Amino acid sequence: MEAIVLAGGQGTRLRQVLPDVAKPMAPVGGRPFLELLLVRLVANGFTRVVLSLGYLADSIRDYFGNNFAGLEIVHVVEETPLGTGGGMRLAMEKCEADHTFVFNGDTFLDLDIAALDAQWQCSHSIIIVAREVPDAARYGRLLVSKARVTGFLEKGKTGPGLINAGCYVLPKGELDGFAVGDPFSFETDFLVAEVGKRKMEYFVSNGYFIDIGIPDDYARAQLELPKLF
Prior knowledge:
This protein is of the alpha/beta class. It has helices at about 35-45, 55-65, 85-90, 115-125, 185-195, 215-225, and strands at about 1-5, 25-30, 30, 50-55, 65-70, 70-75, 100-105, 105-110, 125-135, 140-145, 150-155, 160-170, 200-205, 210.
């Protein structure tokens, strides 16, 4: 199986604790966070990963090289910031499978890949991985009906809810309507714009979930994540 990992962000919220480190390389238990993600991908049967890089790309490329723990690593570097969508579109140029899994380089999700891939094999549709959280205010919410995503709510509303966990399964060529090298937001310019026009399914994960994008959760990851390895 094949995956894209979006690892090009500047990590501005983490700079107060990690001023000169690419966010995916933030150390957790003495190992780069991205290393933990890739180790888990290997355990789940992935054999090829396209890393979408930008900020401090050389530090990531030099650390992982073209092969890591049996994974073929392909590095794609954006020359100017392209946003989540633009980075994903550029990376998809290097994808070879008929579908690809997409992960965020600052989010760890203990995911049942076999079940997720089985859903893809049945539908061949876009799948958004969802997660129930105690307070969805930081993330926004997914609106769902039966097996489909029907809409998205903005961040801010407190209380428990189903969120977009930042992981997707996409058919090859799904983003071909966007030009390679054009910046855009995958969440706003694609998901929100297209949700009423095409089928989008969701898959609920109940596994461990953490986004290290803010200092408090990065500190929590130091205590919790090493226990999984």
